[in-house]
Here is the input.
Amino acid sequence: MADRLTMPQTAMPAASVRAPSVDIYAPQWRNFMFVAPFLFFFTTLLVVPLLWGMWLSFHKADTFSSGNFVGFGNYIRLFHDKVFLQSVWNTFYFVLLTVPALALIGLFLALCLNRRTRTAAVLRTLFFSSSVLSVTIVTLIWRIVFIPNVGLLSTIYGWFGATAPAFISDPSLAMIGIAIATVWWCIGLPMMLFLSALQQIPQDIYEAAALDNASRWQTLRSITLPSIKRTFILVVIVQIVLQFQLFGQAWLMTRGGPNNLTKPIVLYIYDTAFRRWDLGMGAAASEVLFILILIAAMAQYLVTRNNADRT
Amino acid sequence: MRAPAISIKGRAFGDRVLLALVILLSIVMLAPVLWVIGLSLKENAELMANPNSVFQAPYTLKNYINTIGTSSVFIWVFNSIIVSGGLTLGTLILSSLAGYGFARLNFPGRNILFVVVLFGLAVPEQAVLVARHQIFSLLNFHNTYHGLILPGLSASFGVFLMTQYFKAIPKELDEAAMLDNASRFRIFWKVLLPLTVPAQATLGIFTFLGAWNDYLWPLISATKKDMYTLTVGMASTQTNFAQSEGIGFLMAQAVFAGAPILIVYLFFQKYIVTAVSGAAVR
Amino acid sequence: MTADIEIRNVSKHFGTMTVLDDLSLSIKAREFIVFLGPSGCGKSTLLRMIAGLETVDSGEIAINNERIDHLPPGKRGIAMVFQSYALYPHMSVRDNMAFGLENIGMSREVIDARIGEAARILEMARLLERKPGQLSGGQRQRVAIGRAIVKEPKAFLFDEPLSNLDAALRTRTRIELAQLHQRLQSTMIFVTHDQVEAMTLADRIVVMNDRKIEQIGSPMEIYERPATKFVAGFVGAPAMNFVEATLDRSGRNATASFADGVSVQTEIASSQLADGKHTFGIRSEDVRVVAAGQGNADGVVDVLERLGERTLVYARLGDGQQIVGSDAGNSRVAVGHKVGLAFDGQKSHLFSETGRAWHAREA
Here is the structure.
């Protein structure tokens, strides 16, 4: 150090103690301040409730107090509850009804509307418009379609002297009615995802195919569909995750009836936790839903990651 | 987008079949909405006597006048504006700061934290609903605006979106600004943030729409009628479907609630479409 | 303002990969220095280290004898022009230039005066209110330079600033840069992989290859007396001819013999040279095309490149080796002709197997 003070600057000895060279990309605590506000909300409102919910699911609890530790008691009660098992089945049934319909109709619309005409643009706007409505309005609209007497469906059937199927009260049709309303509501997103995938396909492939005299059907089968295979899988998984969370439509259209036949898992959680105030069991049911959705989300992660690797 | 096709007669027929199918689907999309609008313009008694009267005059605006005069719909619209606006503003601020932090700055544990935040994308609202409700009960947050706004601020999507967007901006801009003596915050505020306006618009519209249409959390948190959001309020009037003021009145209320959001959609269509496509390409 | 820059024993690693290895360099005030080398040689990294955008793993950088490598980029008193220009897209040209001055709290009057002066020098007063997106490539380039000028820095750093311009504009901007240097009398460091830019702009060129400095020298030194075989091959177009040769060191000057018996009397002192294989090197302009049998070697013409003022003749020797020679612009040689090649011994070079170069005695 003495050297450093007495020696002229031009002869800086390399070995002397010195300020380290600046590194603009070095990790620094003050940079943390930019993410801290979000992380505060993320931790207190997502991470803590997530862990708290797991903890709750092992306890007998009501709104203000959390009671005794009951181990897997809530889960055991859950899997002995016929209504819960019914709701799990209902959820899967609903996913099975809606997801293929959403994926296939969405793909069909995207293929038809993927052109630069004004009509196509207007129709794209139309098919996506229902997605911006709230579940309340969607169910109101569809109840007025399905309702006997003044319903749209019964009016149309009336023109032909027939009686419309009772989509809300008939046990075998109620879930299908909810599914129809849901497909009407949600068709915009899959269509848009397919459209953007179609626009990613390089135009010159089509030109090459045209030069090779490929028919339209051949072009579709050997170029278009293979190019959007991953998007198709992605759409299916995204829709599974979304439709697993069915709540509003079932609650507002049928209240889960008739006979719990349209009661999905989320409605079961809502009933158990916020109408019967059995928070422990409600938490346990929500953990089951979480695991189901997590599996689908993992699949989505794997698909998107492979996608990224490829490009 | 399609390759120029040489016209062959068979194609014209196929095109017509496709066109017919698309028209049919368009009718399915439109008819229920037109039906609702039609009903909203009719007297209740006339409807009950003959639903086909929808297709004939006389039409009336009475239901709309009743809606404006009697229902709580204005309070609910106000609540929805406060909640959706507050959540949108908060999300934009938090996501921009965090997006810049994750995309451009280095701090201890950054990569792990980002993975944790990404994991947040996979946590559905329902998985934290029960515990969140209990925590908010303890804090007396129910039936307040912040009780409705706060949960949405924990969503990871905005952070993810903004991080991707910041990463796409060339790093030379930051470096040029550093040579220009700008602090980290000044680089964020003056150089990079103005460049993220498209992403802000996209995220803002998405957040606003999502909050406006949210149903489950407001349903369990806002239990007092004057704290209902529009979505919950509308649902509450549906429960007494039969004995309510009449179908026409309900339908007028639905049109009243749905029209603004549809108009907003038509205005910001471009951003919404880019947002959806952007999410797909990522 | 101007400054001398001292780089002492600087090394740089990315992970386990060494990018710069114990490199030292003195840059004098007002000097125009060009870092020249192929991509990946570390020249841009070295420039970014001077700017403060990369860390210095070991060694030191000093400006005017004051160590600066521990200072943040903004505090070093230097300005940089990026390859992509890095203009702030949402700010007008004026605001782009003002930003750095506002950040140090300079008064509005001084800022306006400096912007006015820079706009005058670069003849872009009418562009001041435009956004970068409304400018052509060449205009953006000017703005980037203007943004550097207004800071009145101790040194200017240029990171391949001409590579995004088309050929004609590049030549014009090159000349303008040279004039700018004359006018500002400031230290400038310029990174490029283009040897023409290096030759035309530099007071001194620093040729870099594979993490190291190969040679530092004036353009003509680099061209006429390259220190290594790499420099000889990298600088000059077409590239220098290289032929494997055996040496006869019995005379005062060495004689080089090629595989097929051709021999060239060089003016390189035998005493300097060691045993072992050598490579003989000569530039195309030092190989005259003469009538067959009249030169050091005979060859058959493979290809002709007519450049106008001269003609490059690609001739194949008996052993298949190709040599590029030059002839008058209106050369009557045609492909397939047998020609003689006369090597200028004064301009011949020899390279050892390690790449070290020897040249003729200085006149």
Observations:
- Chain C touches chain A at residues 6, 8-9, 52-53, 55-60, 62, 65-67, 69-73 (CB under 8 Å).
- Residues 238-359 of chain C form a domain with the OB fold (Dihydrolipoamide Acetyltransferase, E2P) fold (CATH 2.40.50.140).
- The longest strand of chain C covers residues 17-27.
